[in-house]
Amino acid sequence: MDEVLRVENLWKSYGETSVLRGVSFEVKRGEVKVIMGPSGAGKSTLLRCINLLVKPDRGRILLEGREIYPKPYDAIHRIRQRIGFVFQSFNLFLHMTVLDNVRVGLVKVKKLSKEEATKIAIEALRMVGIGPELWNKYPAQLSGGQQQRVAIARAIAMNPSIMLMDEPTSALDPELVGEVLNVIRDLAARRMTMVIVTHEIDFAIDVADEILVIDDGKIVERGKPQEIISNPKHPRTRRFLERLKRRVDHGLR
């Protein structure tokens, strides 16, 4: 497999607080990397740095072998077309229908005809289980799970080289989590290249080729999902997983 993403020695601070401290990893085509770790560990900041929503302090980011930071080979908005991003809070346009939410980037950014954009948007919506009965509804008329599936379809429609997902189920009611995780499982089965931040242990075991555990801005452990979950070697990983399992046992997410 060829390499899609390489992150080298990435650092980011906010004032006196170091959020990322020398993070390095790579993602090959068709791979799924899952990032886990306690709140405030730097996971979301890492994804935002990769998508250039946040400017790192130092380090390098390469997309398909070409540098996008600190010396981007192309305009940032064109680079972002190749990096899909699924946020925690959906970020749909409330004044647009489901179909328009997925179609708008294809028309405005990729300059496709409305007819061609509609065809691609419908294919992406079907891929995430959103049927024609919902295409003309507005986000406020959808459940949280449906909204997040539309957000995933919007990212898929742009045909990115890699998808970044920042805790895609964290804003959902517990009964809606499964429908979104099943969509992502299907994307993983299709060998879509993804980096996913999640606290869902069983899901991580199902989809990840490798789990990276981040704590205090550093990767403290990485490895195969079963090895990390069943036999963590680093004390910080063990503490994090113990806390997470206690929350699950008490019915919390």
Could you walk me through the main structural features you see in this protein, from its secondary elements to its overall organization?
The protein is α/β, with parallel strands linked by helices. It folds into two domains: 1-78 and 166-179 and 194-253, P-loop containing nucleotide triphosphate hydrolases (Rossmann fold); 83-159, no CATH class. The protein contains nine helices and ten strands. It has helices spanning 43-50, 76-80, 98-108, 114-127, 144-157, 174-189, 201-207, 225-230, 235-249; strands at residues 3-14, 17-28, 32-36, 58-63, 66-69, 83-86, 162-166, 194-197, 210-215, 218-223. The strands form two sheets. Strands 6-7-8-3-9-10 form a six-stranded mixed beta sheet, with helices on both faces. The chain has a four-stranded antiparallel beta sheet with strand order 2-1-4-5, with helices on one face. Helix 3 runs parallel beside helix 5 (144-157). The longest helix has 16 residues, at 174-189. The chain is globular and about 55 Å long.
